[in-house]
User: Fold (rape) hypothetical protein from Brassica napus.
Amino acid sequence: MATGSTDSATSRSSGVLYKLFVVFSVCIAASTYQALQPPPPKLCGSPGGPSITAPRIKLRDGRHLAYKEHGVPRDEAARKIVFVHGSDSCRHDNAFAALLTPDIKDGLGVYMVSFDRPGYGESDADPNRTPKSLALDIEELADQLSLGTKFYIIGYSMGGQATWACLKYIPHRLAGAALVTPVVNYWWKSFPSDISNEAYNLQPRNDQWAVRVAHYAPWLTHWWNSQKWFLGSSVVTRNLGLLSKSDKEILFKIGAAGRPHEGEIRQQGTHETVIRDMIVGFGKWEFDPMELENLFPNKEGSVHLWQGDDDALVPVTLQRYVAKKLPWVHYHEIPGAGHMFPLFPGMVDNIVKTLLTNEEVKN
Assistant:
């Protein structure tokens, strides 16, 4: 009898332990799953969400795109430009409109529109964002604003992904394009492994891991950049330590008052802004920009690539290789310049005039 009771008690004890193990495992799995899921974006105009203050268009899938107009009136403009902002920025961050001198703006009849890329500022997020969807967003913006059959495009930094996509998917709509220190995807297949690996290893170790996760395990990117055990992406954490000396000097001159709209940039959340940029920018692309054909064989337009040789964010070695593979792209390398060289005196005029007339400004 005693032995039977002991066996029964042991069996019940084992059953309880097993159930506790199952419950514990389920809790761990649920907790892990929850940690991997990014919070939903705070849609502008929704209850408790940010206010809508900018003009917006409604896109083909029901999303809204906020925009801001600059320069001469749209219906009087001789030349119309769409500007695509970089990472951790918004429609207000348009140095190409703010620093363009009246001689160029009025003399060439320049109208410019900047817009919040999906998830930024007051534009609705697009969880299905791809380079192609960005190009189609831009085309739809141009159509709804009646910019005409052709327009120019300038893409800065992470805005380069949209600009390359426009060259691929809507080349018939472009009068010309300028890629200004565009972020490069280390996994574009045309890069020789030794060149891409060398450039990749120039990054701080935390950024190497951050872009590696974005490429190979995009579902893990939110958790990777929100956990507190180790450093995530320097862009996500706004770590300015990796900037070049010239970039730091520019930021010092601008000061804290340089971006009064800072709070608006990520107001819908971090995931559909800077983290989505990483997933798209360093993910698996449907095309390789270095396989693009000449858009303007008859020289009716031009494509320009501008890069500083001291850029700590975008390796100049990769841009040089891109330029070598695309000889029809006009490559401009700025000595001693970092990622923010468009803020150099006269540089915006130079970039815009070169794009619109194929003539560089003579200082």
